[in-house]
Amino acid sequence: MLDVLAIATRNLLRYRRRTLLTLLLIVIGMVAVLLFIAVSGSFKSMMVGQITDSVLGHVQVHRKGYVASIDSLPLNLNMRPNMLAKLEETLDGNPAIAAWSPRIKFGGMYSNFAETTSIRINGIDPAREAATVPLLPGRLAEGDKKAALVERGQIVIPQLLARGMKSQIGDTVVIVATNKDGSVNGKTFVVRGILEPISGPGGRDGYIHIEDARELLRMTEEQVSEIVVRLKDFSKIDKTGAQLKAAVEGLTNKEGKPMLEVHDWTQLSPFANIAKMIDLMTLFIKIVLVSIVLVSVMNVMIMAVFERIREIGTIAAIGTPPSRILSLFLAEGLMLGVVGTLAGIVISLAAIWGINLRQPTFDFGQQKDLIMAPTIAACDVLTIAVLVLVVAVIASLQPAWKASRMDPIGALRHV
Amino acid sequence: MSLVSATSLTKTYRVGDIDVPAIKGVDFAIESSSFVAFVGPSGSGKSTLLNMIGCLDHPTSGTLKLLDTDIATLDRKAAAKFRGEHIGFVFQDFNLIPVLTVFENVEYPLRMVQKWPTEKRREQVMRLLEAVGMTDQADKRPDQISGGQKQRVAVARALVSNPKLVLADEPTANLDHDTAHRILELMKKMRDEFKTTFVFSTHDPKIMNEAEVTFTLEDGILRNGGHHA
């Protein structure tokens, strides 16, 4: 085998310029794919991390039918105390769950005594919320990030609302809301913090203490709109999410019908579709890479066979077995793949390192100055490398087969 | 027993709808360690005959035996194996592999066909290069040596695996007369040294006289049964 590889290398070096051009194409393809995977993958991970760790959590539990009407934040579809008691028992007994947090979600009017605007509010238990969506305090653009997110009588408002209403930390504001019975109530709050917006549902919500929410909505019992759940291992969300779904949706009412429904973040955030698009684009760019390698290697190997017909005739005449002739040409394709892959990996890793060194920033929606920090998993590099090598060998197969089946007499007569 | 024997050997090519006979029922025998020439004008069937003896082509009819093997029955793979083990080739255009050095060209059959161990391979190649007087050119590429030197290397390559038979199709056609004479002298010397049978084809009257046994072909028919010089 080493003999075959050594001769294949010599043959590739025979036409240096052509070999270099083919290698260049493979390297460009490799670098494009690996950089795209690194940049898009890290962007996706960052966005998914932000969405799940600062707003949505990994999984959410609602009363049956709530998510279908979620845009109107229906207070009449809040979970009742009897449901909550059963649910709490189920969640606390599940070893896959790291934390969970109850929320009361409602729409209200925000007034600074001069102007009024609408606001979506989450009533939260600050300690549970911090444990369930740990990046939420980090979104505070103004206000103490280390203290509890909200105490009784405090409100955290989104940055866009703060700018529009010219609200500042320490301002007193009024929240007016209608409860499920249509009764209107108002309550004053002190602005305790201003939150940076993020993309997706809940990314521009305000936060108050859950007890204030109950008071404002004149709730006579402990109702909640949703339970946000954080899993211990996000990578196992499909498996543990499904187990949780089965357990929670197994909780039934007196009629034996499920009371609750479970959704993971992909069912709640439109960014899941962007993530799918990124995956699809990654697939397409891989197909482009396969095409580049296939066409360039096949082209160079067809030329190699055509230009060396007499040589093939000679080695066949002196007794080289057809399988050895086949392996000689396959080895040339493989060598192109190996060298192109290695160079592609080295250049890609260097480019990723360079990008991380420069830390370029970008904007995404209302989110400004996000740092691009591309990373790539070893398994992704390995997958692409194997793909290129396999395609390079496949591309060489037809020309190599043709060479191995060549009639020595015809080949020796070739001019 | 003859090294090569042919009985009622024919070869007909099909060109479109027409059968073109190239060899028309020839009989001959070649003894071991002989120095044989097939001579005749272009198109007389010399190359066709050598190709059949060299297991590169199959006869249309008749029998052709080499080392008591009916080589007409060998399939593609078996024919390649048989050639690698028993036959050496010298070509008109030398046909050295341009990316390999002189040493590596001679080494090629041992390395890629017969897989000799490295040290044994090296000894054998150096022995052959010494025999053809090319030791000092061992590291050169084919494009760095003359035509005569290339043919010496080709002779060394043909002999390196100790074949019983070396076939040379017009081995001197691309060489000047003096060089051609020296190559034939070298081939004779190799025959004496290695006891290998040399069979070559030529249409050059000055060269054909170098052979010890001459078969004259005309239009696919043998005009003599092996004329001894």
In short:
The complex is a heterodimer of chains A (415) and B (229). By secondary structure, chain A is α+β, with helices and mostly antiparallel strands.
What do these coordinates show?
- The complex is a heterodimer of chains A (415) and B (229).
- A six-stranded mixed beta barrel of chain A has the order 2-3-8-5-7-6. A two-stranded antiparallel sheet of chain A has the order 11-12.
- Chain A is 53% helix and 19% strand.
- By secondary structure, chain A is α+β, with helices and mostly antiparallel strands.
- The mean pLDDT of chain A is 90.
- In chain A, helix 2 packs across helix 11 (322-358) and helix 9 crosses helix 11 (322-358).
- Chain B is α/β, with parallel strands linked by helices and 229 residues long.
- Chain B is 35% helix and 28% strand.
- Chain B contains seven helices and eleven strands.
- In chain B, the strands form two sheets. In chain B, strands 3, 6, 7, 8, 9, 10 and 11 form a seven-stranded mixed beta sheet that branches.
- In chain B, helix 5 runs parallel beside helix 6 (177-194).
- Chain B starts with a strand and ends with a strand.
- At the A-B interface, helix 1, helix 10 and helix 13 of A face helix 2, strand 6 and helix 3 of B.
Distance between the termini of chain A: 31 Å
Instruction: Tally the beta strands of chain B.
Output: 11
Major sheet details of chain B: 7 strands, mixed
- The overall strand count of chain A is 12
What fraction of residues of chain B sit in β-strands?
25-35%
Calculate the mean pLDDT score of chain B and round it: 89
Shape of chain A: elongated
Describe how the helices and strands are arranged.
The complex is a heterodimer of chains A (415) and B (229).
Chain A: H1 2-14, H2 16-56, E1 59-63, H3 81-92, E2 97-111, E3 116-124, H4 126-132, E4 140-142, E5 154-158, H5 159-165, E6 172-178, E7 184-195, E8 206-209, H6 210-216, E9 226-231, H7 237-248, E10 260-264, H8 265-268, H9 271-307, H10 309-317, H11 322-358, E11 361-364, E12 367-371, H12 378-404, H13 408-413
Parallel strand pairs in A: 3-8, 5-7
Antiparallel strand pairs in A: 1-9, 1-10, 2-3, 2-6, 2-9, 4-7, 5-8, 6-7, 11-12
Helix pairs in contact in A: 1-11, 2-9, 2-11, 2-12, 9-11, 9-12, 11-12
Chain B: E1 4-15, E2 18-30, E3 35-39, H1 46-53, E4 61-66, E5 69-70, H2 76-86, E6 87-90, H3 102-113, H4 118-131, H5 147-159, E7 165-169, H6 177-194, E8 197-202, H7 205-208, E9 213-218, E10 221-222, E11 227-228
Parallel strand pairs in B: 3-8, 3-9, 6-7, 7-8
Antiparallel strand pairs in B: 1-2, 1-4, 4-5, 9-10, 9-11
